[in-house]
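Re: beginner question about structure tokens

> Can someone show what the tokenized structure looks like for a real chain? I only ever see the sequence side.

Sure, here's an example I had lying around. Input first:
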Amino acid sequence: MKPGAMTPLEQYVRSAVAARRAERGPLLPILHDIQATFGYVDQAVVPILAEELNISRADVHGVISFYHDFRKSATSGTHVRICRAEACQAAGAEALVAHAQERLRADVGGMSPDRDATLDQVFCFGNCALGPTVEINGRISGRVTPQRFDALIEKT
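And the corresponding structure tokens:
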């Protein structure tokens, strides 16, 4: 790449900022755009966003690290998120998490050894009456038992 030339990531981030600059509080929507496009929020976007939005790098980093929805690395294969908020815990989420870790061979926040699955936790999908709730590749399911989890994984 030529010195001074922008990377595709930098080009995308700058265009995403330009498209949302006039919005009130554009940082969150821009971060969602970046994650939707790339699958995660690369740390390389922090200084670009800080510069473009005239905020500190610490502010950008703080938002990325505060919201659990923002991944800091790429996912692979099947992406599973399990709710661990109080309502889902009361409905059996902890046993489901243990089962998912064994089934996927992945710790929460990690990937399986074959990089075929990523397992993450969430603290509320807003599906509390139907807990425990699981999201697999963007599709939410409620009242998930270990057996239902296995069936859902088989469908992916």
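Each token stands for a local structural state, so reading them left to right follows the chain. The longest helix spans residues 8-20.
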